[in-house]
Design a protein that fits this description.
Layout (H helix, E strand, L loop, with lengths): L7 H5 L7 E6 L13 H16 L4 E3 L22 H17 L4 E6 L5 H14 L4 E6 H4 L1 H6 L13 H10 L19 E2 L2 E2 L4 H4 L13 H24 L5
Parallel strand pairs: 1-2, 1-3, 3-4
Antiparallel strand pairs: 5-6
Helix pairs in contact: 2-7, 2-9, 3-4, 7-9
């Protein structure tokens, strides 16, 4: 079920308890020299739509929210970003409407690393207001961590930025948007965790290339296999949330 394709009458008839409202959240920002700024938007939307297609009777899919918390990319240009307070408030506002209409289960499906922390704050705020609901959220790569690690060839076995993973996914989903002539090894990049401490560095400090890892190792075939595995794993998470008991 897609919220934006349904009439108000059809939405009124949707089961409030055994339906998971899914709100995909993404970003539009620079993705190095070879990937489109809409990379996170394209990947997150495609995963969410495939999950809805696999669970058409139990997932109510909202349109993807494209504006992310991307301040750490601003110095590299070609980036749209919301202030953190604005972003958290907007997530709460979007989630609040279906919850006020009686839906009992909602999840944010995230497609951008900068959204993770504000997403959790939004969920904490919403839980106080709607204690008799199941509120959840995660980046799709957290749900499918093992699938992604097993499908990558380079040293980085996780989702970076315009990396082997994201490049493979866009080669699969939107190959016409990849500038293949500029796809190259991104070289070394600084971590954001040192000795267990989070170190707040923006992307210009972490990588001068504006991307990370080994996009030169990406292939559309890897992207297709990764996409299928991610959709399967997110489907498992969806079914878990539908089975979760609501405690008042």
């Amino acid at each position: 079920m897609k919220f934006h394709e349904m009439t108000s009458g059809a939405l009124a008839d949707v089961d409030r308890d055994q339906t998971l409202v899914m709100l995909p959240i993404a970003a539009v920002e620079q993705h190095g020299p070879h990937l489109p700024t809409g990379t996170d938007l394209f990947i997150c939307s495609a995963v969410a739509e495939a999950v809805e297609q696999a669970h058409p009777e139990s997932v109510l899919l909202l349109p993807t929210y494209w504006l992310g918390a991307s301040a750490h990319h601003l110095r590299l240009g070609a980036t749209m970003s919301a202030e953190l307070d604005t972003y958290i408030a907007t997530l709460c506002e979007m989630a609040r409407q279906p919850l006020k209409e009686g839906f009992k289960r909602l999840t944010f499906l995230n497609g951008h690393g900068g959204n993770v922390d504000p997403m959790k704050v939004a969920l904490r705020n919403l839980q106080v207001e709607f204690p008799d609901t199941i509120l959840s959220g995660a980046a799709y790569w957290s749900i499918a961590e093992e699938v992604i690690a097993s499908g990558l060839e380079g040293e980085d076995k996780f989702v970076g930025h315009a990396c082997e993973f994201e490049t493979s996914m866009i080669q699969h989903l939107r190959p016409e948007l990849v500038d293949e002539g500029k796809r190259a090894n991104a070289g070394p990049w600084l971590p954001d965790v040192e000795e267990g401490l989070f170190v707040s560095r923006d992307m210009k400090q972490r990588t001068q290339a504006g991307c990370t890892g080994r996009p030169d190792l990406a292939t559309a075939e890897k992207g297709a296999a990764l996409f299928e595995g991610i959709v399967d794993r997110v489907g498992v998470a969806v079914r878990a949330m539908l089975a979760e008991q609501i405690l008042e």
